[in-house]
Structures are given as C-alpha cells and as structure tokens.
Specification:
heterotrimer, A mainly alpha (325), B alpha+beta (523), C mainly alpha (291), A: 325 residues, mainly alpha, 13 helices, C: 291 residues, 0% strand
Chain lengths: 325, 523, 291
C-alpha cells in the first residue's frame, strides 16, 4: 500500500478508535454515583429536588442513556465538546487554550529523550563493559526508577531555588515586552526544567534499547565486512549500524506516548505548567464531567497522532518498513 | 573647572535630597505590579461569582457604592454620600456624577438597580440583599433602596466584592439568570473600576491595565497589574523570594509563612482579612447518633487540643477563635473555650452513656472538602483516639461530592473553613439558622436548632443601634459556644506577602485584596 | 549491564538451572535481589519489629532526622517518619504486586488467546489492546478513582486495568512464534485440546519474556500508585510512600527530608526491581539481548 492509502486507512481507524474511547468514557461517567445536576446544584450552594429535576431536564439528563450518548457523539463530531459548568466556558475552548502547552512539553520531552537516549546508547554500545556504559546505565535507571514528580521537585529546588537559573513556575513571564523571538526564548527557558524532568523517565528505555540493538548490529556480517573494507569507524556506527538499530527504538517511542502524557500530568502539577494535565486535575477535583470527558478524548487523540508521526518517522528511517508490528 | 565641578556636586546633592523627599511622600505613578492568584479563576464577574479568587480581579474591574477603611468605617466610592432613613427602611445612594464604564458609557442609577437584581438572582449569598424589595431611580445619579425591614448588614454588603456594579447595557441583553453564564464574564469584561481587562488566559494569568477615565482623579497609580496563576504554594514561595512576584495575598501555609517572614526584603502581614473573617472549625452533625448529645460534643471539644493546633499545626501563625464570629469583627465576644482535658472528656462520654467497650466507645467518620486541611483531619483522628473514639477518615475525591455530603447531612464530623464576609448576617447566620438546615454546603449542615439563637439572630439583623446589636450577638455567641454544634479552633492564618522595597500601600484594609487597589503603587 | 559469565554448558542441568547460574553471575542483578528481599522482609515484619505506630503523634512536628531518637525525623503532625516509611512499604508493595498480578492475568489471557487462535479472535483482541494502549493511563485511572472512590481495591483495579497491554503484546508475540515450532505443531496435529496446548505446551515456553515483563510491571505499578497518591487520590486511612510525598509536598522548602526519604524508598525499590528484571532478561534470554 502506498503512503496515502495507509494514511487514509489509519485515519479512518483512528476515528473508530476515538469513538470507542468516547463511548467508554461517557459510560463510565454515567455509571458513577451522582451526576452533573448534582455538581451544578452544589456549586450554587445546594438545591432541593425540584430544582435538580429542572436542571436535569434543561441539560437533557433525564433522557435514556443511549439518547444522551448519541447526542454527545453527535456533538463531538461537530467539534462541540459541551460546556464546562465549573469554568463557565465551552470545553473545546478550554482545551484549545491548554493543549499547545501540553503538546510542547510532550513532544519536546520525547525528542530530547530520543536524541540523548540514542546517543548514549550508541556510545555505550561501542564499549559495552566500559565505565561510560555503566555510568550511562546508572543515570538512565535513575530517571526511570525515581518517581517523575520527585525528580521534578528535586530539579526545582536545585535549579530554581538554589541556583536561580530557571523560573519557578508557569510557561512564560508575562511582564516581558518583546517581539516573537524574545517571547519564544522566554517560553524555552520556562520549558527547560519540565522538559528535562519528563525526558529523564524515558531516557532509560531508549538508551538501553539502542545499546541492545546497536550491539546486535555491530555483530552482523554486514558491519564486519564494512570494517574489513576499511570504512571509517564513525561512519560505520552512525550511518550503517544506527540506521538499522533505530527502527525498534522509534517503535518503542511511539508506544510510549500514552505514558509520556501520564508523566506530563505529574510534571505539569509540579511546575504549574498550564497544560491539559493541570486542567484535568482541577476538573476532576471539581467533578466537571464535560471537561473530563473532553480531556480524555483529546489525550487519546494526541496519542493516536503521536503513533502516526512515529510511523512516519519509521518510514523515513527505514523505507522498507511498510506496516505495523 | 573646579567651580563647575563644585556646582555639579551641589546640584546633585540638592537633586537627590529633593528626590528622596518626594520618594518618601508621594506615591509614584506607573509600573507593572506582578501579583498572584493561588487557584484558577473561573469567572471575573464578582456580581455573580463569590470567592476570593474572583474577588481580587473583580474588585479592580468593578466598582461598588462604598469602600471601607481599616477602622471598619465606610468611605465614599461610587456613592458620594448616602443616607439611611430613621426607620431604616430606605437607603439613598447619591452617586458620583463622573463615573464611566470602560467602554465610555456613563454609569447611572439604572445600572445600580440592575446590579442589585442580578446579584439577588445569581449570587450564592442570598442574605445580602434579601430584604431589598426595590431600587428606585428618581434620577440618573440617585438610587433609593427600599427595604422590607431594617438591614444594618447592608452597609458592608455594599462594599468590597459583594456589590459589584455591572453595566446594564452589556449584561441586560437576556434573562436575569443568564448573567451567570454570560459570555462577557470572562472576556471583554467591562466595569467601572480603576482597572480594565487586557487579557484573561485560563490557568495562566489575568492582566489588567489602568483605566484612564477612572472617576477618581489621579488614580490608580499603577499602569498594569499582572495576576499570575500559580497553584503550588511552594512555587509561589520561591517566586516571592527570587523577586518574580511583588505581592501575594491569601497565603495560609504556616511553614511557608514563617519561612517568608525570615526573608529580608519581604513583609508578611496578617492584616487585611478582618472582613473576610476566615475561620477553621470542626463541624459536628447534631442530627446523627451520639453527636445529638451536647455532652458528646463537649467531650470532643475537650479532647481536641487547640493549643496543639495553634502551635504545631499552625506554627503560631493563626489566632484563637472561640465563636462563629471572627476575632477582628467589632461584634466578637470572646468565650472561655475548651482547653485540653482528657479526663473531663472521658467523664462526659461515660455520663452520656458511651463507656469503653472492647477498646472503643464509638465510631465516627470525618470528612473534609479539600486536601489543604488533611493535617487537621488526621490530627482529630489521633486526638480522639486518646478518648477511645474511633475515627475513620473519609476522603471525597472532588469538591461537589463532599459538598453534597455536607448539604444532605451525610456526615458525622467534618473539618471546614468558612468566611464571615463582613457582617454576621452575611456569613454567620447561615450556619446556625434553624430554617437553613442542610440546604447545601455551608448552610446549617449541622442541623442545629435553638429557638433563642434564632430569635437573637432575627433581632440582630434588624437592630440599627450598634451597642444593642453587640449585646445581642454577645448572648448569641455565649449560647453557641456552650452548645458547640461547631467547635471553633482557630482563624485561618491568611497573610499578605509583599516586597517591602517595591510595593507601597499594599491592600491590607479589612477586605484585603477584595477591594480596589487604586492607591497601591510601585516604589 | 554487567557481564554475563557463561558456564560451560552442562547438559544435565535444566534450562531453569542454567538461567539461575547466569543470573547469579550478574552482580548488579544479585545486588538488586538482595536489597529487594530486604525491603520485602521489612515490609512484612517491619511494623512488628519496629513497633512504632505510624499514625500516632509522638513528638514535635518537623523534628530533624537524627534528633531525639527519630532516625528519619518527624512529619507535620509529629509522627515518626521511619514508621511511616515502613508501613508505607507494605501498602506500596502490595498494591504494586496486586496491580501487576491483575495486569499479567488480563494481558496473558488476551495475548494467549490472540496468538493461539489467530483469525478474527486475534483481530478483535488486538483492537481491544490497541484501544487500551491509546487511553491516557494516568488520567483514566484518576477518573476511575475519583468517580468510584479511593479504596485500596479500587486503586489496584484502576492501575491494573490500564497496564496490561505490554504483557498482552509480548504474550501474543511469543505465542505466534512458538505455535509454529515443531513440537507444538505436533501437539496440534495430534488433536490435543487447545486449553491443554496453551497451558501445558506453549505457555511454559513463552514464560521467560513474560516473567521479565511482569517483574518490571511491579515497579511501574509502584510508580503509578505513587503518582496517584501524590495527586491526592489515595485512601486517607492508610499510608503509602507516594502519599507521604504528596502530604508533605508543601513543606518541601525547609523540611525537605519528609519528601526525600519516601522518594528514595520508591527509587531504590523500583531500581532493584529493574535490576532484577534486567538480570532475569539476560538470564532467561541469553541470545536475545533486546526486548
């Protein structure tokens, strides 16, 4: 199948998947005790039975479950994710406001983890039992084994309080006047600590897998022949061995998107990063059902897009690869 | 050359003397104040949304008829002068003539009348304007409030964030109850306050800038206010220390308060929260089982050590409170309180018919509405264990679940923080009024009912003589301290943090930041 | 990782015996196993040996580590931090083990059925697996716990129900590979009942990577629980490591040890689990250095 066909098939498939996600989440929120009417009523200081009935009627909560589900899905198709009672804003707007911040964090962390992880993996594969290799393993295992929020707090104390190299919270300093470049740099500075924190978790995975696959590659006949022919060492490593070794690593990276988003929720909490994670947290605390559903939906969407992009990257790295698994 | 040099020196000396002189005397104009909001703002329209988080930006965007100084004396604001009739049933407000909304439209008494309607219909505090029957508008700058009974609480209700005057020509385009979810509550917000809205980014910040046509000449002093939203208290603390924030209010974590007190260029003050009147307390559901017996409630009070709470949990940052009225209020009448006395507690429990059986006298549950009070809840559990009461901590994952439990009386004990909101009629009556039993969270969720207390509150609500009112509330406080449906332990130690070298005239009057900061300036 | 020492192949030793010898030679993995055993020992017997009630307010709050007989100091209510960490070990490890167990059961079942039956069974099961893979795990668990209550069983369920996809994939992969091997084809041809083939023939051979993955999952379940606790979604009547960190988060600026120690506890536990998992991987799959 050529590229466009694959893209089309994947997209249709993605839509089906997303619909399934919607149905599951919607059903789950329905199963739970209490409903949206309660939430609204409580926010207004309590209400008696008739007011609750009125609220239910107004929001269509007295309809049978399937009708509500159908309406919700229909709305989502038109990009209407409902209205948040807590924030008094349409959910879609809320999410659009916060989504870029999370995307920035998630993708930059993945890229950093991949770049550094692969590099470390390659380095340690060349001297598998050397000191560097063990050191790399140790650093990588630290990032993986330490709870990500703990790492974040430690980095915060170290680099924001002790050495005041980085700002303490948020995504930008609004008091800065300046053009596009100054403002972008400001965001980059704020992004540093959260990005490093989140990347540290996945560094381990990527570096270890790279090391393993590189070791394999370096033992193949193909590589041995290249050495015998007198090709420069670095060229062999980075151009030949690495290209083949990268494929499983990229696959792994694609599979990690869901985990990266989970990590992002915690990192956002530590650094007050204004993304979907903090929005999710406040919405859950406020039982803001429409927003929660919206966020779950969008997170799944981000994962699917991440998977798609990973597939693209796969093809770039190794055009022979046509399908999944 | 020497002459020139000497001349220059003298000139410089003179200039610096003049500069310092003016530095000390006059507020400087200009600059951007960077401050903080500790939780997410949901709505900028303080006429329909209660809470201190909306109150800060709300009071800058919208003006109210009155404002109060630090001595609890009302000062003119939108109302130049005001008048209450002999029988207390008519309150006349004479508005300033030059007040404009941010879009240039003049503010008139129509807007005042409209705002009262909107607040009555949408604001959660029903008791503020319940006695207001109509608002007459004989001319553009006079508003006459007609009351069904005398309402001394009205004065405080017309200040701070409680009576924001909103423009009728913007919010009056639909049903009165639609204002609650009006699109202009979060964007393009237009009021007549000293600052207008530049940008509101949910979860990130609120940016305000000076309204040049503000009706008080020469004010406000600041050019811009940036309210950053930082929900993590430790992050805020770091930001104060490294200068990222100039000022912040409602800091309540004892460790952080004490830490910031030790920082050189920061001033940390408990002033400014008298009218907000935040109180911590242990609520006891008098309709449930053993708690219906006042001896059991007293026993619990004797077992929960206030001293420990003040010293260990609050680390000396909070003040004692013995009644439902905040100690800073003119109506406060201190009571004896319940010092730690485990023997007395045990004796009372025995007397009430709850002896120790198999190591425990009874089992109770304790709820709490937000994670910040978890230490207090855990303390109560440990404290009551010492008199053999088993306490199970119930955690509700979200606020509405807890609110519903409280509102329907589905709890034994609960730790809570409740505000007085200025006049006892607004924030205190709701807790003890027997007609307000279990009508949602922060009502009389304890199911308390005492005829004399009801009577006292009804009389105090309409009593216009200050001394008589104080006496009524004194008796009220003595009774509720004795019957203890709610065990008052301490005030919530709200503090305002600000950079001593940068911030002049920080908002530390009785309404804290729920008041216009048009007199604040950057040094 | 450390070098593998390979013994001269001893034909009379079973594959498991050989694996154990390989594992034994891996010093890092061995160290991890020793530490892990100590931790588990402490979790089981610690509360009885150390005897201090983690909920009792014994002393002044925030007593620094080492003072007044409190090795790790006291927390905001004056409770012994060491007692809390010991008690927390039990909860965190139990949740870790149970959630991992649940994930493994679900994952192996789905993977085995998919890998064995192929065809439309495999299609459906794989779609379901993909579906759960796409779900944002932490968010979904947060919602479950928030909606249905933060009790230990519910938390375990919330973690287990989103973490099984990796096991399912590996199981299916192994089954696909093994079912084509000669001795398996022989069983299938001879008409043995599928259940027997799955459990007696294929599964035992598929175990090595599954075991490795399961071991690692205990570690990630512990981290998962820590994350939920940090955000406040825990049972307030029990102590877990993540909860200690979450409750003490606001004191981090000047009583940082209350956050550091439980963090170190989690870190060491998960690190050792990873080392053991790695050791198992190297030991059980000497030829496959990748996963």
């Amino acid at each position: 199948m050529n590229f466009l066909q694959t893209l089309l098939v994947r997209s249709v498939y993605a839509i089906i998947l997303l619909t399934a996600v919607l149905i599951l989440n919607f059903s789950m929120m329905h199963l739970a005790p209490g409903d949206v009417a309660d939430t609204i009523a409580q926010a207004n200081g309590g209400a008696d039975a008739e007011v609750l009935e009125a609220i239910r009627a107004e929001y269509g909560l007295d309809q049978p479950f399937l009708v509500q589900l159908g309406r919700y899905i229909g709305n989502v198709m038109q990009l209407n994710l409902g209205y948040s009672f807590y924030y008094r804003e349409p959910v879609t707007e809320l999410i659009i406001q916060r989504l870029p911040a999370t995307l920035l964090l998630v993708f930059s962390a993945q890229i950093l983890a991949l770049l550094v992880g692969v590099f470390l993996g390659v380095v340690s594969a060349q001297k598998p039992n050397g000191l560097t290799s063990h050191f790399v393993t140790f650093i990588a295992l630290f990032g993986y084994s330490a709870p990500v929020f703990w790492t974040g707090i430690l980095l915060l104390i170290g680099f924001s309080l002790q050495f005041q190299w980085f700002p303490v919270a948020g995504m930008r300093d609004v008091t800065i006047d300046g053009g596009f470049w100054i403002k972008s740099w400001d965001v980059v500075v704020h992004l540093m600590l959260p990005m490093i924190t989140l990347a540290s978790v996945f560094l381990a995975l990527y570096s270890r897998l790279t090391r393993a696959t590189m070791l394999e590659q370096l033992r193949t006949d193909y590589v041995r022949t290249a050495y015998a022919k007198g090709m420069p060492h670095l060229k062999i490593v980075y151009q030949h061995a690495l290209k083949n070794a990268l494929s499983p690593v990229i696959t792994l990276a694609g599979l990690q998107f869901s985990a990266v988003i989970s990590g992002a929720v915690l990192v956002e909490a530590v650094f007050s990063w204004p993304g979907l994670g903090t929005l999710a947290f406040t919405s859950i605390l406020a039982r803001d059902t429409p927003t929660i559903l919206g966020i779950l939906f969008f997170s799944a969407l981000v994962v699917i897009i991440g998977n798609l992009l990973t597939d693209l990257a796969q093809r770039l790295v190794d055009p022979r690869i046509g399908g999944k698994e | 050359m020497r002459h020139v040099f000497k001349g220059l020196m003298t000139a410089t000396a003179l200039a610096s003397m003049v500069a310092t002189a003016s530095y000390a005397d006059e507020p400087k104009k200009g600059g951007t104040l960077v401050t903080v909001l500790g939780s997410n703002v949901r709505n900028l329209n303080s006429a329909v949304q209660s809470g201190i988080v909306t109150g800060f930006p709300g009071a800058q965007l919208f003006a109210s008829p009155l404002r109060y100084d630090e001595n609890w004396e009302p000062q003119p604001y939108l109302a130049e002068t005001w008048d209450t009739s002999e029988d207390g049933l008519t309150v006349t407000l004479n508005l300033v003539k030059n007040a404009k909304f941010h879009d240039g439209t003049p503010l008139t008494s129509e807007d005042v009348a409209f705002s009262v309607e909107v607040i009555k219909a949408n604001h959660p505090f029903k008791s503020m304007f319940a006695p207001v029957e109509t608002v007459e508008t004989p001319n553009a700058h006079t508003a006459v409030l007609k009351l069904s009974k005398p309402h001394p609480a009205l004065m405080l209700a017309m200040s701070g964030q409680l009576m924001s005057i909103i423009p009728k020509h913007i919010y009056g385009d639909g049903e009165i109850t639609d204002v609650k979810s009006h699109a202009r509550n979060n964007e393009n917000v237009v009021g007549s306050g000293p600052f207008k809205l530049v940008e509101f980014k949910n979860g990130e910040h609120v940016i305000l800038e000076r309204f040049d046509d503000f009706f008080i000449d020469g004010r406000p002093y600041l050019d811009k206010i940036v309210m950053r939203i930082i929900t993590d208290p430790a992050a805020r603390a770091i930001a104060y220390e490294n200068g990222e924030l100039h000022m912040g209010a409602f800091e309540s974590l004892p460790r952080i308060i004490n830490r910031l007190k030790g920082v050189d260029n920061l001033t940390v003050t408990p002033d400014g929260y008298g009218a907000i009147g935040p109180l911590d307390w242990l609520a006891m559901n008098t309709t449930k089982g053993p708690l219906a017996d006042v001896r059991v409630r007293k026993a619990i009070a004797y077992a929960v050590d206030k001293n420990f709470i003040h010293k260990a949990l609050m680390q000396g940052t909070a003040n004692d409170s013995t009644t439902g009225i905040h100690p800073d209020s003119p109506f406060y009448a201190a009571q004896d309180g319940y010092d730690l006395d485990l023997k007395k507690s045990a004796a009372l429990l025995d007397e009430a018919g709850f002896p120790v059986k198999d190591g425990s006298r009874m089992s109770l549950t304790i709820d709490f509405g937000w994670p910040g009070v978890k230490p207090q809840v855990e303390y109560v559990k440990a404290a009551l264990k010492k008199v053999d009461i088993n306490v199970e901590v119930v955690s509700s994952a979200d606020f509405p679940t807890w609110a519903k439990k409280m509102g329907t009386g589905d709890f034994d004990l609960s730790w809570d923080t409740v505000f007085n909101w200025g006049d006892p009629v607004i924030g205190v009556h709701r807790t003890y009024d027997s007609t307000n039993i279990q009508k949602g969270v922060w009502s009389n969720t304890q199911g308390y009912s005492n005829a004399r207390v009801d009577e006292l509150m009804t009389m105090a609500a309409v009593e216009t003589d200050d001394a008589k009112r104080k006496a009524l509330y004194a008796e009220f406080q003595a009774i509720i301290a004795d019957e203890v449906p709610v065990y008052h332990t301490n005030t919530l130690p709200y503090h305002t943090v600000y950079n001593t070298n940068k911030v002049g005239n920080p908002p530390i009057g009785i309404w804290g930041t729920s008041t216009p900061i048009d007199m604040t300036y950057l040094k | 990782m450390s070098d593998l020492t390979t013994d001269a192949p001893n034909i009379s030793q079973s594959p498991w015996g050989q694996a154990w010898r390989r594992f034994r030679g891996n010093y890092a993995a061995l160290l991890g196993l020793v530490i892990l055993t100590t931790i588990i020992f402490v979790a089981i017997f610690g509360p009885s040996i150390y005897g201090v009630d983690p909920y009792e307010m014994l002393w002044a709050p925030f007593s620094a580590p080492g003072l007044d007989g409190f090795i790790l100091g006291t927390d905001y209510l004056g409770r012994d931090l060491l007692a809390q960490i010991i008690a927390g070990a039990r909860v965190s490890i139990i949740i870790g083990l149970s959630a991992a167990f649940m994930s493994v059961v679900i994952g192996v079942s789905i993977g085995a059925l998919a890998g064995f039956y192929r065809g439309w069974v495999e299609e459906i099961l794989m779609r379901i697996t993909e579906f759960f893979q796409v779900l944002p795990t932490l968010l979904f668990s947060m919602v479950i716990v928030a909606l249905f209550g933060a009790s230990l069983p519910m938390i375990t369920f919330a973690i287990g129900v989103v973490s099984w996809t990796a096991v399912a994939r590996i199981t299916r992969s192994e089954f696909l590979r093994i079912r084509e091997l000669e001795f398996v084809m022989a069983s299938r041809a001879s008409g043995t009942r599928p259940v027997k083939i799955i459990f007696n023939v294929i599964l035992p051979n598929a175990l090595p990577p599954i075991i490795v993955q399961s071991a690692l999952m205990v570690g990630s379940a512990i981290l998962f629980e820590a994350g939920l606790s940090f955000l406040g979604l825990t049972d307030p009547n029990v102590v877990s490591w993540g909860q200690i960190i979450g409750s003490n988060r606001q004191y981090i600026l000047d009583a940082g040890y209350t956050v550091t120690f439980p963090g170190v506890a989690i870190f060491i536990t998960v690190l050792c689990i990873s080392l053991v998992g790695d050791g198992l991987n190297d030991a059980l799959n000497p030829k496959l250095k990748e996963r």
